[in-house]
């Protein structure tokens, strides 16, 4: 590995070194050597849901915080490590703490979002927040007060040939597998042990349309959400899990939603609950939306020379699942589809990773309430979104866009496919499917044959997540179960430009 790659890897080793730091609180016994060694926020504290960082680029990041009541917060951040080796030069991060003052907003369920700008590429940062004013009373700076804190790292600069490791999965708390036992969602510990630069979370991070029965789960989730306050309560219930708080304090996230953030297999324009579900989702996740389009979830991020990430929204703009497939049917909507086609065409990264909450070729049938195939694949009933997918595939082939990787979840089993739609014997793109994190598991289903897939791995019946470590010269994939054991491992070499 080149020197700068080594420096970037060493940077990743520090981002999980400090988790949420708060006043002492009782918590479950953790396994020996757990990366979650620090205390988590007391549920009765100012910060009952902790904090999170998301959409970290080379120069910016979003910090999310929620408080127990309306307060004014002081948020501070500073660089703690520089990725570049001293002899390689480059701009050094500015020293010292930077500061912002924000108020938690009752109109956003007492949450606050702080956008950090002008950060230094390839650099680890720490942040902390304390209550500055509550009930009209200012708390002096010198007075001891509870602090919520965490770390994250900015992406390396676009020309850095650094190795990047990230994790991805979906489906947390479904089919009654919610906050159970002394250490719920312990699979998140296994994810943090991978020391990822970031995590891609592909939705179903609440199950708004499902119950969390008590027992065996902690109380608070035994209802179906039908109003904005109930959608928010579902998010609060999840975020009060200590393991999730610790994970979000240590690992920056890129998040999108899927159906259970609202209702099973929903299509946004045709579902009355879409506005409430989307509002709650944006209240509770650190998503950077454009000023002119505050509902937009699709976005992209660059991580050095090796990686460009494209995060899709497969719910907000989609046609009804029950509509027959054809040129007028869409999962992405015209604007998002055109954005993706142009962004793929312009990308100079070695690996182009597309995060889609639903898989490409795995059939995902509907229900009596919502008939029609819910994934990209064409169903036996003539539904699905294959024609739109074919437009994207045709562009990949026509413009010879190499090394495209699709990430997916939603189907509750793991699968790894390569695709050769032009039948020339060479892989044109890949699909990696993982999950669930904590939900009902299913037996694996073979992919549809339209795009000429070759299945390298397909297995179900266990919780899992995916790990990708990539550089300009290789991509290493692992599917890891909740015990930390790799169920599948393979290294892929990039195809050179033609």
Helix- and strand-based class? alpha+beta
- Tell me about the largest β-sheet: 7 strands, mixed
Q: What form results from the Cα inertia axes?
A: globular
- Uncertain runs are 1-43, 82-91
- Count helical runs: 7
Helix content: 10-25%
Question: How far is it from the N-terminal to the C-terminal residue, by CA?
Answer: 25 Å
Strands of the widest sheet, in order across it, are: 12-13-14-15-17-16-18
Strand content: 25-35%
- Average predicted confidence as pLDDT: 89
- As a whole number of angstroms, the C-alpha radius of gyration is 22 Å
Order of helical and strand elements: HEEEEEEEEEHEHHEHEEHEHEEEEEEE
Q: Based on DSSP secondary structure assignment, what is the total number of beta strands?
A: 21
């Amino acid at each position: 590995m080149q020197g700068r790659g080594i420096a970037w890897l060493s940077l990743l080793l520090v981002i999980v070194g400090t988790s949420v730091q708060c006043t002492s609180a009782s918590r479950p016994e953790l396994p020996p050597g757990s990366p979650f060694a620090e205390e988590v926020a007391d549920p009765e504290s100012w910060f009952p849901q902790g904090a999170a960082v998301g959409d970290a680029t080379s120069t910016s990041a979003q910090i999310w915080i929620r408080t127990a009541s309306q307060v004014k917060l002081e948020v501070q951040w500073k660089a703690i490590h520089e990725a570049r080796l001293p002899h390689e030069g480059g701009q050094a991060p500015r020293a010292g703490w930077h500061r912002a003052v924000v108020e938690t907003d009752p109109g956003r369920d007492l949450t606050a979002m702080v956008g950090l700008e002008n950060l230094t590429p390839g650099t680890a940062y720490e942040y902390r927040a304390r209550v500055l004013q509550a009930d009209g009373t200012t708390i002096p700076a010198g007075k001891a007060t509870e602090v919520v804190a965490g770390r994250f790292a900015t992406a390396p600069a676009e020309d850095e040939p650094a190795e990047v490791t990230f994790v991805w999965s979906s489906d947390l708390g479904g089919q009654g597998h919610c906050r159970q036992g002394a250490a719920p969602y312990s699979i998140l510990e296994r994810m943090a042990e991978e020391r990822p630069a970031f995590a891609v979370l592909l939705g179903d991070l609440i199950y708004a349309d499902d119950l969390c029965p008590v027992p065996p789960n902690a109380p608070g989730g035994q209802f179906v959400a039908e109003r904005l306050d109930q959608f928010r309560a579902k998010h609060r219930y999840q975020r009060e899990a200590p393991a999730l708080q610790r994970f979000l304090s240590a690992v920056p996230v890129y998040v999108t939603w899927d159906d259970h953030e609202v209702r099973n297999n929903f299509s946004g324009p045709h579902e009355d609950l879409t506005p409430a579900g989307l509002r709650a989702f944006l209240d509770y996740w650190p998503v950077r939306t454009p000023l002119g389009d505050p509902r937009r979830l699709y976005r992209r991020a660059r991580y050095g020379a090796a990686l460009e990430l494209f995060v899709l929204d497969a719910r907000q703009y989609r046609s009804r699942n029950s509509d027959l497939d054809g040129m007028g049917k869409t999962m992405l909507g015209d604007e998002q589809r055109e954005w993706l086609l142009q962004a793929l065409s312009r990308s100079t990264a070695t690996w182009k990773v597309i995060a889609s909450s639903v898989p490409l070729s795995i059939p995902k049938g509907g229900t009596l309430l919502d008939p029609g195939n819910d994934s990209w694949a064409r169903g036996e009933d003539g539904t699905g979104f294959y024609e739109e997918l074919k437009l994207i595939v045709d562009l990949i082939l026509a413009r010879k866009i190499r090394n495209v990787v699709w990430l997916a979840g939603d189907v509750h089993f793991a699968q790894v496919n390569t695709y050769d739609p032009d039948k020339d014997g060479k892989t044109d793109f890949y699909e990696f499917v993982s999950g669930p994190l904590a939900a009902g598991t299913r037996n694996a289903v073979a992919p549809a044959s339209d795009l000429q897939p070759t299945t390298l791995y397909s297995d179900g019946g266990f919780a899992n997540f995916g790990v990708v470590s990539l550089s300009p010269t290789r991509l290493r994939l692992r599917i890891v179960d909740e015990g930390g054991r790799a169920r599948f491992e393979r290294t892929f070499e990039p195809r050179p430009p033609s």
